[in-house]
Every structure is written in C-alpha cells, then in structure tokens.
Description:
The structure holds two protein chains of two kinds.
Chain A lengths: L2 E5 L2 E3 L5 E8 L8 E6 L5 E7 L6 E3 L7 E6 L4 E6 L8 E10 L2 E7 L3 E5 L2
Parallel strand pairs in A: 2-11
Antiparallel strand pairs in A: 1-3, 3-8, 4-5, 4-9, 5-6, 7-8, 9-10, 9-11
Chain B lengths: L8 E4 L5 E6 L11 E6 L6 E4 L13 E6 L2 E6 L8 E9 L3 E4 L3 E5 L1
Parallel strand pairs in B: 1-9
Antiparallel strand pairs in B: 2-6, 3-4, 3-7, 5-6, 7-8, 7-9
Amino acid sequence: EVQLVESGGGLVNPGGSLRLSCAASGFTFSSYSMNWVRQAPGKGLEWVSSISSSSSYIYYVDSVKGRFTISRDNAKNSLYLQMNSLRAEDTAVYYCARDLTMGDPSPAYWGQGTLVTVSS
Amino acid sequence: QSALTQPASVSGSPGQSITISCTGTSSDVGGYNYVSWYQQHPGKAPKLMIYDVSKRPSGVSNRFSGSKSGNTASLTISGLQAEDEADYYCSSYSTSSTWVFGGGTKLTVL
C-alpha cells in the first residue's frame, strides 16, 4: 500500500525558513516522480513543485521560484521542500503526492498534509 | 500558470446526474490529455477520481466519468449519492512541465 507521511510544518515568522519532509513507503520510491501541492485555508489546490525520479528535472510554480527548493533522498525514501523567505501567502496545508505510474505524471497518491502557518 | 475555471458550486438530488466543467487554454487542458479530477471531503486529502481525461483508477465507481472537448474538460457524476457531496478539483498538465488546478467546485446533494 502506498503511504506518504508529511512532517515539518508549524508556525514561522514572515521571512523565516522551514523544511518539510515526506516519508514514502509501500512502493519503489526511486522509480517515481514526486510533487508538492498546497492548499491555503478555505482555498483551492495549488501545485508547488515536482521532481523527477533521479532529481534530473525540477519544476516550480512562479510564486515560489528562488525561495523554495525541492529535493529527494532515494536511499531514505524521502522527499523534501526547503522553504525560505516565507510570506503570509505561503500559509497552507502542504501535501506530497506521487505520480500515478512511471509513465503517467498525474499526481495520484497523496499524503495527509502538514500545516504551515506564516505569521508574526 | 493561471488557474483553470470551474463553477463555484453545483447541486443535484439523489439519483440525478450532474456535470462539472473545467475550462483552460490550449496551453493546458486543450494541449494535453493529462486532465485529472479529484474529490476532497472536509479535512481530508484529495482523492484521484479521473485521470488522463476519462480513465478511472481502480476502486472508483463507474458513476464517475470524464471527457474533454477543446479547452474544456468535464466530470459527470451519475446516480448521485449522499457521499458524493464534496469539493471537486480539476487539474491539467501545462507548458513548462507544470501543473495547474481549477478553483474547485462544491457539490451539494440536496
């Protein structure tokens, strides 16, 4: 069974940093691309970033470019999101999501999310 | 990277059918067959209901179906049931290998 468990969320001051983690199990982590998707309180979903299986390809939504860094450690079956220069508008539940198959990039399996609150 | 356009809300009675539209551009919905639909109940993670425009993951009821015409995708739910009441989001692969989501549609089962 595919399992994704996010951690690392919390309360941070504007301008601060936070590192999110996503622990994966139940599948061969190194074979799949992964994504981060966020949802502000009471709002819709927003794709944030994706990383290919070998970290060769990395993409970001424009609003986080230069501030967020996605990475992965295939030996540890873990996905990360380093978030710097945080703003109030980054407040959201952050989900990690796995692609459907090795050939289909549709985000299919989701964790339960971790809440990031940016406030003074 | 503009959001896809969905109606804010739709409603239907048990047993009826409803359709939710999702309008994008030729850079996303119209340009790729990677359109997905997600169901989200309050406080829960999104659940994939339709992928690749019209395919259903294993375990998803065949009451859920998807289609696409030009820059607009649609999700149809037939034989509405109380447990279908939820928020529904469309998403599409987009240029520069990014993804874009719709604003979400709240489905109310009357």
